[in-house]
Write a structure and sequence with these properties.
Strand content: 5-15%
Distance between the termini: 47 Å
Helix content: 40-55%
CATH architecture of the largest domain: 3-Layer(aba) Sandwich
Oligomer: single chain
CATH topology of the largest domain: Rossmann fold
Number of domains: 2
Order of helices and strands: EEHEEEEEEHHEHEHEEEHHHHHHHHH
Length: 325
């Protein structure tokens, strides 16, 4: 039986991450018993103190154990900690030596949503793939450039280090772990009970691209604004570099450093975001939307749209446009 430690940090923690993990893993035990099997997990809430106030005292969680009580655990689950990230990490830094000690002893570790920031602070994500909430992707890359953030993924698994994407995608990671530890049949039973799409593997359809403007390069920020205002036109790197009196190679380097995208990638993402909004709200067919955002080649538009969103333009419209569907 695997021992699961669900951390209860100080601060404004995701209560759904904590309660949802405890509930779903407990339900996996119940399903295992109904199948005539032994339960898989011993599940405990683990904190730094015996009572952890949450959301300015609106809730209080009483962990089953404090970290000093846990000599050996098999899986540590790190929930999302909201609010000021640096403050949250400072409040909870006493977890880090214990996490590293448990990892050295063979424990696996899973971060949920922006719990990836805390996991990255341990150094255990260095050189590994990682998922987190797409809203926080730019900030994560700034804070942890040594981590390979894959912001389109709903989860990652790298040698027993697991991460999940935004918000309720932690449910998919839990089902994945149940399948890994208990088999496909058990995972299907749990996914059906909680109505979780068991094979969803991307958060791309949910991403809203707002550009990465939290940087200090004013000329690049102006170039971004120009692209966003003229995305339907043909825009070249040479044109932008000349417009802002910067050499092409220097402009490309600065643009990638500031935005984490090449100019071409940024333009594609802006065009696709405009197309998404049209497909969500307007009574236009895909061809009309394609022309309005500056594409003339149906295949090229469809390929870029699918690459960025994980869906074809028609699938996206049918998913989000009530009039179209």
């Amino acid at each position: 039986m695997k021992h699961i430690s669900i951390l209860v940090p100080f601060g404004h923690t995701s209560l759904p991450n904590i309660d949802g993990s405890q509930q779903i893993l407990s339900e996996a035990n119940s399903f295992a018993r109904r199948m005539g099997r032994e339960p898989l997990f011993t599940i405990q809430l683990v904190g730094l103190e015996k009572a952890i106030p949450q959301r300015n005292g609106l809730f209080t969680i009483q962990p089953d154990k404090v970290i000093g009580d846990i000599r050996k655990t098999d899986l540590i689950i790190i929930p999302a900690v909201h609010g000021d990230l640096l403050e949250g990490m400072e409040q909870n830094k006493a977890f880090i030596p214990w996490i590293l000690q448990q990892r050295a002893a063979g424990a696996e570790i899973a971060s949920l949503c922006i719990g990836a920031f805390f996991l990255a602070a341990t150094g255990l994500l260095d050189g590994r793939q990682c998922a987190t909430h797409w809203v926080m992707a730019a900030q994560f890359r700034q804070m942890y450039p040594q981590v390979n953030l894959v912001d389109d993924k709903i989860m990652t698994d790298d040698d027993g280090i697991y991460t999940s994407g935004g918000a309720y995608s932690f449910l998919n990671l839990l089902v994945y772990l149940i399948e890994k530890y208990g088999g496909r049949e058990l995972a299907i039973a749990v996914s059906k009970a909680f109505m979780i799409d068991i094979d969803r593997n991307s958060q791309s359809p949910f991403i809203m691209f707002n550009g990465q403007k939290e940087h200090e390069d004013e000329e690049i920020r102006k170039a971004q604004e120009y692209i966003e205002q003229h995305y339907e036109d043909k825009i070249s790197v040479d044109q932008l570099a000349l417009m802002f009196s910067v050499g092409r190679r220097s402009f490309e380097r600065r643009f990638k450093k500031a935005t984490s995208n090449t100019v071409g990638e940024y333009l594609q993402r802006v065009k696709v975001e405009a197309a998404k909004k049209q497909l969500e709200m307007a009574r236009k067919n895909v061809s009309e939307v394609m022309y309005e955002v500056g594409y003339n080649d149906t295949k090229a538009f469809r390929d870029v749209f699918r690459k960025i969103t994980g869906l074809s333009p028609v699938e996206y419209r049918n998913k989000y446009n009530r009039v179209a569907s």
